[in-house]
Every structure is written in C-alpha cells, then in structure tokens.
Amino acid sequence: MNLIKGIFHTSLGRKYLMAITGAGLFGFIIAHLLGNLLVFAGPAALNEYAKKLHDLGPLLWLARLGLLGMAGLHIWSAVKLTTENREARTVAYEGEVEPVDRHRRDDFVAKFAARTMIFSGLIIAAFAFYHLAHYTWKVPQINGISGEFKGDFETYYVHETDGDNNQTAFVSPLPDGEGAEGENASDVYRMVVNGFEVPWVVGFYVVAVGLLCVHLSHGLSAMFQSLGLKNKNYGKWMDCGAPLVAALIFLGYISIPVAVLAGFVN
Q1: Is the CA virtual torsion 15, 16, 17, 18 positive or negative?
Q2: Digit-coded pLDDT (tens) for 218-234
Q3: What pLDDT, in 10s, does the model give residues 110-138?
Q4: If you placed Cys at 120, which of 23, 83, 97, 211 could pair as Cys (CB 3.0 to 4.6 Å)?
Q5: Taking the CB of residue 14, how many other CB atoms lie within 10 A of it?
Q6: Helical axes 43-54 vs 188-196, angle rounded to 10°
Q7: The whole model's pTM is what?
C-alpha cells in the first residue's frame, strides 16, 4: 500500500511511473514497426504475421488492454508532473506585487519536444484510435473494405467511388500463395494499401508519426534520467542518440505510406 501511495502521490513516484510506462510503449513502437515493415516482403509475409497475432486470441486482447493502461498512466503522470512543475516555477519574490512566472520566462530556451509532450500525446492517442478503427475494427467507412466469410478464409468487397456514384467491386483478397491460409485470415496487406492510397490519410499519418517521434526525441533521454540510468559518462550520448533513434523510427514508419502512395507497394 505504501509503495502504491508513493508511486501515485509523490512526484518521484510519478516520474518512475512515466518512465516505466514510456519504456513499455517504446518497446511496442519498435515491435510494431518491425511487423509493419513486412509489407515490403509482400502479401504472404504481412498476412501471415497478422494471422499469427490474431491466433493469440485472448492474449492479444490482454496485450491491447495492457498497452491502453500504460498509455493512460503515461499521459496521466505527464499531465500531473507538468502541472506541478508549472506551479513550482510560479513564485513571488520579496517586494513584488505579482508573482513571476518563470515558466513563461524560460519558454524560449525550453526544448520544443518537452513543451509539447502533452499536446503531441493527445494527437497520438487520437491517431491510435483511428489506427484501431482502420486495421483492428475494420470500419468500412475508413478502410473502404467490408468483409464476409466464404469458404476457409475471409473475403472482402472493396467499395470504390467513380466520382459520381459508389460502385462495389468484388475482389479475391487472398490468391494462392499470397496470403495467410486458414479460417478468419484477413488481408491486412490489402487494407494497408487501400488506406494509404488516400493522400489525406497519408498526410495525417505522417504528421501523427512526426509528433510521436518529436515526443520520443525528448522522452527517451528523460526516461533514462528518471530511472537513474543517465550519468555524466553516458548522458551526452543519450541526449544525442535519442533524436537519432527518433528520426530512424520516423523514417521507418513513413516509408510504408510513402511507398504505397508512390506506387512502389501495390
């Protein structure tokens, strides 16, 4: 009980909480990126990977709930710490009529990433919700695909618009040798391509991933500092390495929609 109280009711505990949940979310970001990059290996590789995840059943939903919980705790602790820091920086000096807001005075030297972590976190949360609607819940209005079961795997109808009227064309999403076999196998590869053929979707994706990586460029270094793993010997390397890692993650994620939009993946 004292441990839980220390984590949730002290600044130090909230710093540890934000660092630990941040580390867990960072691990997911890397794993998710490696899985997504299978799109360059073709439909079979990506669909088989998606099927293996789907076959986890309850474990997959347990992981999703764990990620949701970590994200919620991460945002909550960040909001609390930001509020506390701003209140602590607003002090009144002797002889002054009004307090001096040091946060405003130091804004011009504060890092952009540190000052926008709350805002970018909320944008990322909205993007994550859209991402789930696209690939997990398969909302037809978002991904342009609706599904029904035929035979041993799931087949889809792709809804295309000719400019005047909506036309529905039947497609066979999992031709022999190009997709995961078995019941409930979904053509994730086709959903990726269909989704990223829409320019505004690509633009939103790039902006959201960009905000995520701006967040990481500051958060990775802060995470090690909060956990007490940042010292004089490695501190500068961590400060320099965090933006580099964030940039590599950014390039990895946006390479997929850019490749689809450019026609390299179709």
Answers
A1: positive
A2: 888 888 888 888 877 77
A3: 445 556 666 666 666 777 777 777 767 76
A4: 211
A5: 22
A6: 110
A7: 0.73
Q: What sign has the CA pseudo-torsion 4, 6, 11, 12?
A: negative
Cβ burial, residue 189 (10 Å; 0-12/13-18/19+): buried
Residue 216: which H helix or E strand, with range? helix 199-226
Structure tokens at 159: 């809804």
Residues near 40 by beta carbon (within 8 Å), at least 6 away in sequence: 256, 259, 265
CA-based radius of gyration for the chain: 23
AA letter at 90: T
Single-letter residue type at 49:
Y
| Structural contact between residues 14 and 8, judged by C-beta atoms closer than 8 angstroms | yes
**What's the fold here for domain 2-86+114-262?**
3 helical TM bundles of succinate and fumarate reductases (1.20.1300)
Cα gap 241→221, rounded to integer Å: 8
Amino acid at position 189, single letter: Y
CB 81 within 8 A of CB 18: yes
Q: Which helix or strand (DSSP H or E) is residue 9 part of?
A: helix 2-9
Q: Where are the domains of the chain?
A: 2-86+114-262
Residue in the block written with tokens 């807001």: 101
Give dist(CA 145, CA 155) in Å, integer: 10
> Which backbone phi and psi does 109 adopt, to 5 degrees?
-105, -10
Residues 7-50 have pLDDT tens digits of 777 888 888 888 899 899 999 999 999 999 999 999 999 999 98
